[in-house]
Amino acid sequence: MESDAKITTAIVISCVVAATGGLMFGYDIGISGGVTSMHDFQREFFPSVAKHDGSKQSNYCKYDNQGLQLFTSSLFLAGLVATLFASHTTRRLGRRLTMVMAGSFFNIGVIFNGAAQSLAMLIVGRILVGCGVGFANQAVPLFLSEIAPTRIRGGLNILFQLNITIGILFANLVNFCTNKISPWGWRLSVSLGGVPGALFTAGALFLVDTPNGLIERGRLEEAKVVLKKIRGNNSVDTEFNDIVRASRNANAKEVKHSFRNLLHRRNRPQLVVAVLLQTFQQLAGINAIMFYAPVLFTILGFKTDASLYSAVITGAVNALSTLVSVYTVDRVGRRMLLLEGGVYMFLSQMAIAVVFRIKVTDEAEDLGHGWAIMVVVMVCTFVSSFAWSWGPICWLIPSETFPLETRSAGQSVSVCANLLMTFVIGQSFLSMLCRLKHAIFAFFSAWVVVMSLFVLFFLPETKNVPIEDMTKTVWKKHWFWKRFMNDEDNHLIANQ
Hints:
transmembrane; sugar transport; 0% strand; Growth Hormone, Chain: A; membrane
């Protein structure tokens, strides 16, 4: 039985290699905020921002520039579009080849960014990097959820998020060092994104595809061989038959309209939960802080070096805290971590709002030593709470809850929701900060309350449930969602 599956070398290597896709995403998140705060980068591409250094302009509005925000957010708009195409490739070509394509797009984009001579070339590079991120975010969580044994599925899936946090930390360290290299330090920062990109692409070439993906494409014998390899024994008939049965019940090989099938009544609970979790994740404000941490610290009066150093501290806390989720998610469950994380996120954001209200005025002034330490501690508290709760679990739950016939499309819609909201926040945060000032953090805190209430009342627990048994074990037994779980749509799916 699958519950008796060993943690084999093949599983560990496959999951570690696949999860390095998170390094690409994380590095780009971390690199953006640091590069946009570098004077050499501003002078070359955004001179209107650079010329305000030392001026009397409102401290809150110093970086309110749509072009500067587009540099950060264009990646996510491109990723949103790319993940729709990635849904097709994961279903038709498999998870592994989709990951190879992701790495290839990312590496080409890095070359464009490192060699950029104009804003247009810079944006083209960001779009290509975004395509890589969209393909990776579509394929990697699916790969990890499908290949992992049930009892450790959550922890292995969160390796993706862990690598995102490691990528952010790596980027912050790079920015701190390259800021001292004038005038081409920023080029080195963006070019080093090729390191995680090359690691991911090379590793993906040697991975096996998941048994679920192979069965979905009708390659049953190959799927059984792979399943024996990754489980470490030949007694895989029960798990294999469960996957085949799920595939045949869904008629997965024949489904040509998986996006349309998402709208069937029986698929609405998974769809609603996936979209709302990804939307809430961004409305909590995490990427506003992670993208623009150096900018925020500069607004608070930190010098450039000090702001980048503080971002390094934030990145380290982010990476270390994600390890907590790896250890606890399959023990205490998804819901408990989300609820506990929400409490600490709310309190820390409100504290940041209070400090901004009291100490940050329209003129640039240095914070006192004590206030500065408090701000860094509160930011780290927020980042830490997010890193072991809403950060990884919002990627985990969609990848494990959709039935096989809509799993690829469902993951695609989930990624689209995340990237759309990431684009909105990335493109609007600095403008919102200029207008709302300290109230922007109260705005994010209010959303933390809303999303915590959603988890409390509407999110079922999925720990220790086999991925193909989610419908009958989780959704059909939930007090609210069970009303959607009937079989009236099955014949419609089979006849698409």
